[in-house]
Amino acid sequence: MQMIQGKWKIMIMFKLNEPGQHRFGELERHIQDVSHKTLTNQLRQLEDDGLIARHDFQTAEPHVEYELTDNGKSIMPVLDAICDWGDTHVDPKLIDRSLCDE
Amino acid sequence: MQMIQGKWKIMIMFKLNEPGQHRFGELERHIQDVSHKTLTNQLRQLEDDGLIARHDFQTAEPHVEYELTDNGKSIMPVLDAICDWGDTHVDPKLIDRSLCDE
DNA sequence: CAGTATCCTATGGGATACTG
DNA sequence: CAGTATCCCATAGGATACTG
């Protein structure tokens, strides 16, 4: 639980689970309401917990990409199950869908 | 996530999922390290979220029992999945098994 | 027995500004 | 662009004592 609790961690994981490269700025734009500091914090925690990997392209223009590790991929079905349960058992009025994709 | 995050909620749910009646004092004894106040808090939150039900036997000797609601039962497979993932993917050295049953 | 009240600390997360 | 630093606030949870 400690590894996945955090206001934005599930959203980060779902985003990273989508195909393609994922850069810091992209995540920040995609997850509208997260603060800059909190995003870096949660990314760092996920990284420390081995769920995601960070690739720093040591170029002049800072360029960092994140991706799921195998361990991170293995937890996605669990996160799916959490979201599915929420969709089917939680009163829609209580859910802030603005935090989600659709 | 908000409904299941809370230091002891998963343990409470698993305990209530076991057959038999479950009283406050029993939970308090079973979950060794939880503080009295925190246990009541988490029970109240689970109750407010509709995952458990509280039965107050209005007797001279206070007697309260808790049980899972249908909604609460429906989330147990998800909690199982979380625990199974933890058992198979998290370094055992990082897990405090003293918080668990066996 | 079950619950409440009070006090305390640690942590999470937001806002903002600054750095290379 | 990506990250750090600082300040601030709300909440979680523990310790303890009190109530019916």
TrEMBL record, chains A, B:
Pfam families: HxlR. It comes from Companilactobacillus ginsenosidimutans. It comes from the Bacteria. Coiled coil: none annotated. GO terms for molecular function: DNA binding. This is HTH hxlR-type domain-containing protein. InterPro entries: HTH_HxlR (IPR002577), WH-like_DNA-bd_sf (IPR036388), WH_DNA-bd_sf (IPR036390). Keywords: DNA-binding, Transcription, Transcription regulation. The lineage of its organism: Bacteria, Bacillati, Bacillota, Bacilli, Lactobacillales.
